[in-house]
């Protein structure tokens, strides 16, 4: 009896690759705006944000400061309020996506690919955002909830979600997928481990470290600026 044909997989980083910002940043700002988080939270990353705007600091430093501010203030938040604001954020920003990756996702979904989303943003906001795009499986930061229905301040499975290559391998093994014909899309050097695993790595609007690595490896580099999509190599 012939073996069943395995499904192809495509893996996407989300923030800065499909979404034209960071879901974590927008969720943090939304929680502050709704009064769920105190205004002082924004002061934690204000300096890093200004340095990035002035092109004196890196985006990685900025997002790192946002993660620190977010995770040091979420303890005690009602999970119900957390999910409510996450849904509001996605409803407001749902169309703030890049054309190239949006259309790529649509095409791959039509072709029957298993669509895997991986991000360091909270899974509560990723689930809403990625589900509307048709992703099959979504990985993000999961924040533990205590018996009273409030965030405990602890992150579950952190080692797994920080290792995107391990997540890809796990998805392949658990869902009977194949890496033959696989596609990966990332935008920073932290995506290199999973981009090495796929047949067609795409570096979309890459930062300098990923750009240099991609040039050495001969990987596809795609730049989208305004209404122009340009393939570098």
Compact summary:
Helix content is 44%, strand content 24%.
Please, could you describe this protein's structure?
This protein has 233 residues and is an alpha/beta fold. The protein has a domain at 7-21 and 96-231: Rossmann fold (3-Layer(aba) Sandwich), CATH 3.40.50. Helix content is 44%, strand content 24%. The protein has ten helices and eight strands. It has helices at 23-33, 41-53, 59-71, 79-93, 99-110, 123-131, 158-161, 164-174, 192-195, 208-217, and strands spanning 7-13, 114-122, 137-145, 151-156, 177-186, 200-204, 220-225, 228-231. Strands 4-3-2-1-5-6-7-8 form an eight-stranded mixed sheet, sandwiched between helices. α9 (192-195) links the parallel β5 (177-186) and β6 (200-204). α1 (23-33) crosses α4, α2 runs antiparallel to α3 and α4 (79-93) runs parallel beside α6 (123-131). The longest helix has 15 residues, at 79-93. The mean pLDDT is 93.
């Amino acid at each position: 009896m012939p073996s069943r044909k395995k499904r192809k997989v495509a893996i996407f980083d989300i923030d800065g690759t499909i979404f034209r910002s960071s879901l974590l940043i927008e969720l943090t700002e939304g929680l502050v705006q709704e009064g769920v988080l105190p205004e002082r939270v924004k002061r934690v990353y204000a300096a890093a944000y200004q340095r990035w705007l002035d092109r004196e600091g890196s985006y990685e430093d900025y997002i790192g400061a946002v993660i620190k501010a977010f995770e040091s203030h979420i303890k005690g938040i009602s999970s119900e309020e957390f999910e409510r604001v996450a849904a509001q954020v996605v409803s407001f920003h749902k169309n703030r996506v890049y054309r190239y990756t949006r259309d790529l996702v649509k095409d791959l979904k039509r072709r029957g690919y298993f669509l895997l989303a991986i991000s360091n943003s909270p899974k509560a906001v990723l689930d809403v955002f990625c589900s509307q795009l048709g992703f099959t499986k979504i990985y993000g930061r999961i924040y533990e909830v205590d018996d009273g229905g409030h965030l405990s301040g602890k992150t579950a499975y952190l080692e797994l979600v920080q290792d995107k290559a391990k997540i890809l391998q796990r998805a392949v093994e658990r869902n009977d997928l194949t890496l033959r014909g696989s596609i990966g899309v990332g935008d920073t050097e932290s995506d290199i481990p999973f981009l090495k695993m796929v047949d067609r790595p795409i570096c979309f609007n890459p930062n300098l470290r990923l750009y240099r690595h991609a040039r050495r490896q001969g990987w596809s580099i795609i730049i989208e600026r305004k209404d122009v999509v340009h393939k570098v190599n």
